[in-house]
Write a structure and sequence with these properties.
Elements: H1 2-10, H2 12-24, H3 28-33, H4 62-70, H5 78-92, H6 95-99, H7 102-112, H8 127-130, H9 133-148, H10 159-163, H11 166-179, H12 181-184, H13 189-207, H14 211-215, H15 218-226, E1 234-236, H16 246-250, H17 271-275, E2 281-283, H18 284-296
Antiparallel strand pairs: 1-2
Helix pairs in contact: 4-5, 4-9, 5-15, 7-13, 9-15, 11-13
Length: about 300
């Protein structure tokens, strides 16, 4: 029994990732018939990058929803979407990226494949500049272009979803094209472009841990801004930490945790906590719990 519980603990994040992905993409009939679910829950956002057009999706992607609102002439729902992002971000920050995002799960699984040499940040040319690219994409493709580059009747396009998002290509574009003969005859350069981006991300994911999350994801950019102030965050006990570097070696995002435990790049996977033999790293929740127990005594 102890061994089983230990195995569950070791694979807890993977279990949560798979479970949440299945929960938010549970419309099995959509994959059978090649149709998009249009029920009442589709008006609600899910925390991760989960394409609205995925045949199994039961909710909407907050980035896609934000673009749809900014590109329309009716701003009724913008406060809901922005409020949703602020609420989730201030509550758990990029915990969403590490535990609840379907495309994050896909990249994790690709990285586990024992193929090609794995590379960390220090071996990647231009990393220090490329991490800012996701913020450029957020501002330009998610906000500015849908708002200001409009057609003759004043409607903008979902630029990020239409021209970049590999998650939408994998979970929506490809399944819908495979399941609908009418769409197969309509595909052209844009679909080929999106597939090419997806192929590049897949190949990079075999060598680099979560390249899309690190460099391109606008949703990760939003949540990353909240990491330092989120209710759920990491804390380092300086009296215990000897800066041995074990946390950085364990961190697949290659963060110097003792210097910046709430880095915008941290996806809250917990590897650094498990790697620290001195118990110097903990979450704000665990520390608060310990303080309450100490006061009770």
């Amino acid at each position: 029994m102890v061994n089983i519980w230990q195995k569950i603990q070791n694979r807890l994040r993977l279990i949560v990732q798979v479970g949440f992905t299945a929960l938010t993409n549970g419309y099995v009939l959509g994959f059978i018939k090649g149709r998009i679910y249009k029920g009442p829950t589709k008006a609600l956002c899910v925390p991760g990058l989960n394409c609205y057009s995925c045949p199994g999706a039961l909710g909407a992607c907050p980035i896609g929803s934000l673009q749809a609102v900014l590109g329309s002439r009716n701003y009724r729902f913008s406060f809901y979407i922005i409020g949703f992002l602020i609420f989730i971000g201030s509550l758990i920050g990029r915990f969403v990226c590490g535990w609840l995002c379907p495309f994050g799960l896909i990249q994790d699984l690709l990285y586990k494949i024992p193929f090609l040499k794995k590379r960390k940040r220090k071996n990647l040319p231009g990393h220090r500049w490329l991490i800012w690219l996701k913020y450029v994409i957020l501002v330009v493709f998610v906000i500015l272009l849908p708002m200001f580059y409009v057609d003759i009747i004043g409607l903008g396009s979902p630029w990020f979803c239409q021209f970049i998002c590999p998650s939408g290509t994998l979970t929506a574009g490809i399944p819908l094209v495979l399941l609908n003969k009418d769409l197969q005859g309509a595909i052209g350069f844009l679909f080929a472009w999106k597939v090419a981006i997806l192929v590049v991300i897949v190949l990079l994911s075999l060598m680099v841990y979560r390249p899309f999350c690190k460099y391109l994801c606008p949703l990760g950019a939003v949540y990353g801004l909240f990491n330092p102030i989120a209710l759920y965050r990491y804390q380092v006990d300086e009296s215990k930490c000897n800066r041995c570097g074990s946390c950085q070696r364990a961190c697949k995002m290659d963060i110097r945790v003792w210097e910046d435990p709430n880095s915008r790049e941290c996806i809250r996977c917990g590897d650094c906590i498990r790697s620290c033999k001195r118990g110097a790293i903990c979450t704000s929740m665990k520390k608060n719990r310990s303080e309450v127990e100490k006061n009770d005594k």
